[in-house]
Amino acid sequence: MASINPGTVATLDADDAGTTGAAVPVWARPQASQIIRSLIGTIARFIGTLAAIALVLVAGVWSSRAMIERGSMLSTHMFGPWQLWHTAGQADADPYTRAHLASSGTIRIASDSAGVFEARSDAGGARLHSSCDYIIEGPNTGGLWWSLAVFDARGDLIENDARRYAFTSDTAAANPDGSSIVTLGRDARPGNWLPTGGAGRLVLVFTLLDPPTGLSAEQRDERYKVLPAIRREGCS
Amino acid sequence: MPLPSRPHSRITLRSLAMLPVAAAIVHLIATFLAMTNTSGAAFARLGATLQTNQMTLLAPVSPGQQPLPFLSADARYSVCRFETKQGPVAVRAVLPDLGWTLGIYHRDGSSAYFATAAPGRPSVIALTIVPGDDRFLGMTPQALGTAANADPQLTVSAIKGLIVLRAPDKGPAYRAEAEAILAKAACVQKSY
Question: What are A149-186's pLDDT values in tens digits?
């Protein structure tokens, strides 16, 4: 058994001290400051562990949500401001694309049958917003069916008196060279005008159907180089 | 004299390296869970309003009547919620002109089949959706010794999902004709 002298050292009985029988210095005695320090250390370690777990969870879940909702280089291709989920709707779609479709509730034409592009910004990289006017210049698609629709940020149609929500190759007035110009803005304009009201942030969806004979990957890449240009005219 | 060191309290390089690995594992689990959770998918959103194995012509899409996000008002839609649990489902539709499409989607929104119209001539789509597993679907007409009717040869494997027939809206003058063609589309459960 150990006995502690009131002096500077504590001594051990032979049984406790083993073979050494050495004196135990007084600093090894658990004192209040050491207990507090140990307690603080334990709490700090506990908080540190909790923080590490929280960091891991937040980083893992946030990065997953971001890649599912907004896409990444793994699942999307960017063509200027236009984003394409390149395996959307396909049987071999990547997990992020599958999760994107499952969580967003959208029905997409399979990407091997059509190009479905979303734009949330203009050619200059600024967010599309209903307080601005835009000109969208679409090239001649060579007789292929296309559609250009505008939505608010949640994917809802924008209420307007003209009941205009989209233009297609059937309904848009085309230029003599086969190209089309669609304008986006709050105030009525002549031509292919899509009202944006007070929707706030906007999302444009451009759909271009493949020819019934299909396209090779090279042909598709070539075609996607010529997508409508989104030019901002001005903001109020 | 210095206090004895407490190695377990130090942040080691190993524990730091474990953080991104653990975050990556959480990332993969979260992605997998999101992929398998189809409660927000189009099938779940539309499913409650549709009868099983019956084509339904949806109302024109407008701000008050938009059943799915990013569903464009540039088309009319006829939708069937199919289920092959009780037997194969026969699908028949005509795609009369450019812009018409027919898509068969699984519950998670991925596509099982997709067809677009050819320009200038109608395309007749006739196919059978069969369950993807090895279940017994009954005796075939050949096995029963009866003449096979004109069964479509094209088969698609899926258990549950949506069939979406899409007709581009060319304007008021064409709407009645498009609606008539949409209404003729069929999605019927078959029995051998």
Answer: 999 999 999 999 888 999 998 888 888 988 899 999 99
Q: Which residue has the higher pLDDT, B142 or B56?
A: B56
CA distance B75 to A232: 28
Residue pair B126/B91 in contact (Cβ under 8 Å)? The answer is yes
Token pair for A141? 């698609």
Going by the DSSP 8-state scheme, the letter that residue A100 receives in this structure is: H
- For residue A174, give Cα distances in angstroms to A71, A211, B37: 33, 20, 43
Q: Is residue B27 within 8 Å of residue A95, measured between CB atoms?
A: no
The CA angle B99-B81-B123, to the nearest 5 degrees, is 30
A contact test, residue of B111, B124, B170, B174 with most A CBs within 10 A: B111
Asked if the model's pLDDT at residue A194 lies above 90, the reply is yes
Q: Helix, strand, coil proportions of chain A in percent (round to 5)? A: 25, 30, 45
> What residues of B are in contact with residue A8 (Cβ under 8 Å)?
none
Which residues of chain A make contact with B36, given a CB cutoff of 8 A? 102
| Reported ipTM | 0.79
d(CA A43, CA A56): 20
CA–CA gap between residue B104 and residue B172 (Å, rounded): 28
Which residues of chain A does B28 touch, with a Cβ-Cβ cutoff of 8 Å? 64
Interchain pair A105, B69: CB under 8 A: yes
The Cα–Cα gap between A57 and B108 comes to 25
Put simply, the answer to whether B71 touches A106 (Cβ < 8 Å) is yes
Q: Is the CB of B32 less than 8 angstroms away from the CB of A156?
A: no
User: Does the pLDDT at position B87 exceed 60?
Assistant: yes
Element containing residue A168 per DSSP (H, E) = strand A166-168
Q: Do B66 and A157 touch (CB under 8 A)?
A: yes
> Could A205 and B72 be called an inter-chain contact, meaning their C-beta atoms sit closer than 8 Å?
yes
CB proximity list for A234: less than 8 A, separation 6 or greater:
A132, A133
* Residue B140 CA: distances (Å) to CA of A51, B1, B145, B151: 63, 91, 9, 11
